[in-house]
Amino acid sequence: MKHSSSYDNANWDNVKAFLALYRAKDYEAAAESLGVDGSTLRRKIQSLEVVLGYSLFVKENNRWTLTPGTEIILDAALNMEMSTRLFFGMTPRDKGGVVKISLPFALINQFSDVLIQFRNVYPEFTFNISSDARFVDLEREGFDFAIRLARPVSNMNSLKIKKLGTFGLGVFGSKSYLNEMIKKYGKESILGKSELIETGINFSHKSHEFIFSSLNWEQLGFLGEVKIVCDDLESCASFCMKGAGLAILPKFLAHRYSELSCVYDASNTLMAELWLVSRLDMRSEWQVVLGDMLSLKSKELEIY
Fold first, then answer.
1. Which of 150, 192, 202, 267 could form a disulfide with 168 if both were Cys (CB 3.0 to 4.6 A apart)?
2. What is the phi-psi region of residue 265: left when phi exceeds 0, alpha when psi lies from -120 to 50, beta otherwise?
């Protein structure tokens, strides 16, 4: 029986061409990375567009970018690439080695499975992970990658940066704390009398747009007093969960604590960004794969 579905007409080489152009933003560079000429790459992209029924790229500022609305195709292509590597047990052309990563403690739970999955594909690599909350100096301290809850804006020198995703914030309190406040002072006391837990920034962050350094309780309508200051979000969440007061937390982090209840969803006004910073050139196969795996995982943070 003859089939005419897009699935039956799928071609993995065309998907690889799609990913190459997405990463390079340039036909010539993408073709070179695949070892083909520019016209061959264009035919592969056009063939894929015919199967799907729509254009995949638009040219902006002399760079080829994804057509709006095709992000789901990118996710599917990246998953296909990862599944292919796992299926064939592909290992890197590099000899492996130690990869040093700065990963805030609040993100360990989100990204540990990504690092484990990466090692299933690239077993020759070893991860050396620091969960320090501060922004490490990659070049001076020898870190290969850093995942940061802030947007780099200056003094990046030769470092490569890649936006991984965005996430919403909210004001949270433990159910027991909120019930006690309401019982003692009434519902209105949550805004005016609550004890507050704050994220203290005790390290240099001038080269980043770090939203946690500019949060203002009064602008959110809360007039209580700050009683606890922590230098990392996980500690803030822990104190909050144990009834010490209200805390401004990433929604994905608060979601892990079943005792926490959202008092105010600030997602409409407070969105933070997650960035990958690297002192490597991000061109080697394993570096590209790791970056894409982190990007895919980051999208899960946006659903909370």
1. 267
2. beta
